[in-house]
Amino acid sequence: MLIGKNGIIGSAGQASETTKDVSEDEQLKLAVADALIYGTGTLTTDNVRQGLISEFGENKVTGTTFTGTGPWKFKGERKTYTIEKNGKITTGETTKLTKAGTPVAKPEGWLDTTGAIADGAGNAIPLSNGYYYVGGDYDTGLVISDKEKDTLDATGVDSGNQFVWIPVDKDDIIKDGENVTGIKRYDWDTSTGEIKETDLSSDYTEPYYGAPENGWEKTEYNLMVASVAKYGGFYIGRYEAGVNQTNFRNAETAAQDVVVKKGVAPYNYVKWGKSMTEEGNGTTKNETGAVYLARNKYIGDKTGVTSTLVYGVQWDAMCRYIGANKAKMACSQSIVGSTGNNPEDVARNIYDLAGNCMEWTMEAFGNYSSRVKRGGVFSLDYPVCKRLGDMSCGAPFYDDSYSFRIALYVK
After folding, report:
1. Left (φ > 0), alpha (ψ -120 to 50) or beta: where does 164 sit?
2. Regions of the chain with pLDDT less than 50
């Protein structure tokens, strides 16, 4: 089957000489042939994924379901496919994909305040009341706004707050029986952008090691992961947090209104801070801290969403969604710029990931007071997937290179 005159590799070689209009079915055959070559005749999860990427590109492969040793399911433009362990390809039903942003039937169990729209790849994603589809789709990054008639190129203080949908594969949801307990965490090779084979050390925890069982961090984390499992993803700020002005901050100030807009000053000079008082651990809220500011953007929002400081697992999910090439992207700048200012610092409609300010997350390093920063920062070639946890740069540390990013999850 592999090396005969009419075998897969021979057929693949002939097919590769065909025109750019090669059909999806033929591309699947090429992908399997590639996988067999990579695996010297054996199909594995890794080489199947590699084969699919080689023929369809990384963006098209993100939604593929990998089930360990196979079979492997792949969702094409019009069909679904199953690749068996022996290389056989089974074609599913041909489907007509609904245009992204089109209202679709709401899956059972969703909130009354949450509608559903198509992502352009055959999936329904949540859109809560008070939020509006702006543009993009699964492949390019689907954008919503809290301002009606907002546009993809909107900029300045009068634009709306914009967010991008991050899909999370079912295989990345951790369960204990039927109970959702978390989202898989990944460590990234900062030079290649690929996931490392070893897990994170016990120094990196989320919620932080020692968090009270009834404390707000564990409670909120559990609500967030349950929402991600239910709705298949979450929204992340299209831009790093900003203030609704163009004049740059030069010091920590009283709390300002947090915005997620292009062309405004980044919300830097910000500590990680504290969010809420917890009995027994002595923490107090800091209204100028990133975690408090993020949580109070939309917390308790009647439209059905909750805002939080982005979690480490959410940053990981975003890295997986944008793909290895973008996850290793680094875009250093000589000085800090306005949000969305660097046209090279963008992946799937998400900006400011590598070249402006490094961003606080909910992930802890070592203990409660030391938190993890993610992404790049001006003047340093840190990639998007960078994870920086340093006891000497704990939560009290801040300057012009530290900002944060808001994430939304549906209640």
Report:
1. beta
2. 5, 13-21, 279-282
